[in-house]
Amino acid sequence: MKTKYFGYEFRPAVTLFAHKICESLGLDPVEIEWSEYTQTACINQHTMILGNVRDDAVLTLGDLQRYTGFVVHELLHRKYTTFGVNTRDQYVRTLHNAIEDAWIEHKAIQSNLTGNIGELLGSLIDNMTTEGLAQVSDWSNPEQYPYVLAVYARPHAKIKVPMAEGLAPIFEEATRRTHLCKSSKDTLAVAVWVYAQLSNLPTEQPEPVQPEGDEQGEGDDAIQGDGGIKGEGEGEGEGESQGESQGEGEEGEGDAPTTGGSGSPSPDQTQGQGKVATAPQRGTEAMEVEPTNKAPENAHSHGSFSQASAMQKNAYHVTTRKRFKLGA
């Protein structure tokens, strides 16, 4: 098996893979557009947009696996997602994206749609989590909660992110409800329910409790703190019945977190713990929950490329009128 690919080999390989997966999933072929402008992979009814790469860029097998993970994830949206089911509120919309992503991936893995689908999707979310752990400094910020939920609700994720105190019971119940969903309307109901629970959290961090003065314990025998908040459980709910009660908040409210984990804790699992989760305020902008789909470093290409586009100067494909049949 090849371990390195030039960009001009890489794009046809990913495109061929997409067509094979479409065939495997019983979907019509999808058009791949390679764009320098996309931040995340995305799809509509007919076109998938991926981050473009230069013809002379050298890409690895890991890059190919990452892109094929994007392809599978986006095609699962095409298979399961009802486009147009959404809400105007940006925070709830982002929660919905997180839950919808977890739902389609869990559904596909449970159905064993392809032989290694769990591995592909697990690697995709683990890469996203690794990026997040390197960039996020305060996981107790409400802006991060949809991102945390996107990771927590995926049982196939091996790397987890820290959670502020109070989120685990909410996210555990949200995961259970997500696994009962039958449609995108159901996942939206879960998102609305999660937002309602988050809105009931304290509005600000409580004042730290100062220990009463104690003359003793100056040396090695000094009494230390209790080590902070105990690790939140990461058990995933199970069940396969219709989730008609979603959004009503009748079940699971205030449940204690379980100790069964889904995936291994990250080395930074305690980062952000010791703080209490607070409610998102009006106007809080949630952070993006989709994995970033930028070209690997030093492989970025300017312009866009699509077989359905015409060619103009500088080899940029910028119109929708087809003049040349390019590639296989």
Provide the descriptors you would attach to this structure in a database record.
single chain; alpha+beta; 7 helices; globular
Short description:
With 328 residues, the chain is α+β, with helices and mostly antiparallel strands.
Model description:
With 328 residues, the protein is α+β, with helices and mostly antiparallel strands. Helix content is 36%, strand content 8%. It has 7 helices and 8 strands. It starts with a strand and ends in a 9-residue tail after the last strand. Mean pLDDT is 76; it is low at 215-271 and 304-328.
Task: Set down the secondary structure blueprint.
Elements: E1 4-6, H1 7-25, E2 31-35, E3 42-43, E4 47-51, E5 58-60, H2 61-80, H3 90-111, H4 117-135, H5 145-152, H6 167-180, H7 184-199, E6 304-306, E7 310-311, E8 317-319
Parallel strand pairs: 2-4
Antiparallel strand pairs: 1-5, 2-6, 3-4, 7-8
Helix pairs in contact: 1-2, 2-3, 2-4, 3-5, 3-6, 3-7, 6-7
